[in-house]
Design a protein that fits this description.
By secondary structure, the protein is of the alpha/beta class. The chain is built from 14 helices and 15 strands. The protein has helices at 12-18, 41-56, 71-78, 81-84, 113-124, 129-149, 180-185, 194-201, 225-235, 290-306, 308-311, 337-353, 370-383, 398-412; strands at residues 6-7, 28-32, 38-39, 61-65, 101-107, 156-163, 168-175, 239-245, 247-253, 259-265, 273-283, 315-316, 325-329, 357-361, 391-394. The strands form four sheets. It has a seven-stranded antiparallel beta sheet with strand order 5-6-7-11-8-9-10, sandwiched between helices. Helix 5 packs antiparallel against helix 6 (129-149), helix 6 (129-149) packs antiparallel against helix 9 and helix 12 packs parallel to helix 13. The longest helix has 21 residues, at 129-149. The chain is globular, with a radius of gyration of 23 Å.
């Protein structure tokens, strides 16, 4: 397994979509880092996690090869990769790990989570109570999700870095478990795709996407962990990459403090990530008041109790790369309410009934009136309260988002009859 020569943060998406992780490796695996010039913590964490899985779950031999005299090789060695596989030879390494880097750390029990987060703070030495609170909270929730839901035989691997000049913190957590979709499948059999699972997992626990209060039945997990992490990353001027098997979410803070989101899928066998993976960036300068960020998160969660459909609407920055979808280009019938009604009945409703995703693409539509959105979506929202799990609204300006939210909100208060027998999610 020859590791690519350059794996900076900007290459994460292309790597996720194209790199294959063999599920049935040969008896002996060589992970060769000798040509690597640059590797970010997210990539190093993934290769380390995969190697441990091959060694311990598949009982194969693992050999790590790197050039410890190169800067990248020295970084990899000092990050603890060789120690994980008992291949460190004690030789002197020319360059050292940057001072504010937490080496690869394996977490296999809940009792290890808090000591690890404290160690992260001691190593990073950020000396800012607000950003430390955000880091501790996020790491604890990410690792708790791994241990409670992933069924990962190797536990989870974590790594962190702090760049003082950029005031940027990077957190990475990866496991080789069953993935988010499979972890939800028993209680929510209607979640059939990784896209649905990631969307569900990052929404408030009392979302209307599925049954009212669905997350309350998830035992020790209140269902707010990934939702809070998503909000913290965005409100802190950072980003969150969350991947599980076929799907990768890219969520970030926009200039007007809203969420930007892109969704990527893989079509190549064994691409994606065979478990769950998260990379979170936090901007120290934007975490001025961590308590205020948590209050905002809780406020959004509370609003979801009263407006479950509205709060589960998914606005994304471009048409998602998913195959099983009905793509509706709103520009083709902009502000034509009669045609909107026809599209609703001839395209949107049948696609949803067949279990396909529907993407309403508002590209080149500078605004949409409420009456137009009413004609297009009101009966869908009214008749099918669970529909938002299968809907994506792409390229929506804020005025259009508000119109959609208004229509969804007042459709939700209509008295709802029983769902048609042929209705599927």
């Amino acid at each position: 397994m020859k590791v690519p020569d350059n794996l900076p943060d900007k290459n994460l998406i292309s790597f996720y979509k194209g790199w294959c992780w063999p599920k049935n490796p040969d008896n002996s695996i060589l992970i060769d880092f000798t040509d690597v010039n640059h590797i970010s913590p997210w990539a190093l964490t993934q290769f380390a996690a995969y190697g441990l899985w091959v060694k311990e779950a598949k009982h194969k031999n693992i050999k790590i090869k790197l050039n410890e005299r190169s800067s990248a090789g020295a970084f990899i060695a000092r990050s603890g990769l060789l120690d994980l596989f008992d291949q460190a030879d004690g030789a002197e390494i020319d360059e050292y790990l940057p001072e504010k880097t937490v080496p690869l750390t394996r977490i296999t029990s809940s009792q290890e989570i808090l000591p690890f987060t404290k160690n992260v703070m001691n190593i990073l030495k950020i000396e800012d109570a607000e950003i430390e609170g955000a880091i501790k909270y996020s790491l604890i929730e990410l690792l708790r999700n791994v241990l409670q839901h992933s069924k990962s035989q190797i536990g989870g691997l974590a790594m962190a870095e702090y760049y003082p000049t950029k005031e940027l913190v990077k957190l990475v957590v990866a496991d080789l478990g069953i993935g988010i979709q499979a972890s939800l499948q028993e209680k929510y059999p209607e979640i059939a795709e990784d896209y649905q699972a990631l969307k569900f997992a990052t929404q408030p626990h009392i979302s209307g996407t599925f049954n009212y209060g669905a997350y309350q039945s998830m035992g020790d997990n209140a269902g707010l962990g990934l939702f809070f992490i998503k909000q913290i990353a965005s409100l802190a001027g950072g980003c969150l990459y969350l991947g599980s098997y076929d799907c990768l979410f890219d969520i970030w803070n926009t200039r007007d403090d809203n969420h930007g989101k892109k969704i990527f899928s893989v079509t190549k066998d064994e691409a994606g990530w065979p478990g769950t993976f998260a990379m979170m960036h936090l901007n120290k300068g934007r975490v001025a008041d961590f308590d205020a960020i948590l209050r905002t998160c809780r406020k959004i969660s509370d609003e979801a109790r009263n407006n479950p459909i509205e709060m589960s609407l998914d606005f994304i920055d471009e048409v998602p790369e998913i195959s099983n979808k009905e793509w509706v280009r709103v520009e083709d019938f902009e502000e034509d309410v009669e045609t909107a009604g026809i599209i609703r009945e001839s395209s949107i409703r049948p696609a949803l009934a067949e279990g396909r995703f529907v993407v309403l693409d508002f590209e080149n539509v500078p605004f949409a009136t409420q009456s137009f959105i009413h004609a297009l979506m009101y009966k869908i929202f009214r008749d099918y309260p669970n529909v938002t799990n299968s809907l994506f609204f792409a390229n929506c300006p804020h005025s259009t988002q508000e119109a959609i939210q208004i229509v969804a909100s007042y459709a939700a208060v209509e008295e709802k009859g029983g769902l048609p027998n042929n209705w599927q999610i």
